[in-house]
Design brief:
By secondary structure, this protein is mostly helical. The chain has one domain. The chain has three helices and no strands.
Amino acid sequence: MENTNNIPTNPFKLLEGDEKVPENLKDKVMSSINFSNMLLDITELFTTNMASSVGSLFKVDSIGEKEEKNKDDKENKK
């Protein structure tokens, strides 16, 4: 993609100024991102992973598996 308007292809280059960002601001932003990632991990642990863990703990079968198991049990009794 050729650039004919002398505009940088990276839009963030337009925002970039000559000023340097203070280190304490960078640290605060990174700390906030890390905290958000930790909360996301904890949320996943108690929503998606917990449901599958509890299901495997009680060995819950799906409907299709129950039907097959019942069919096999009936054939074995004969």
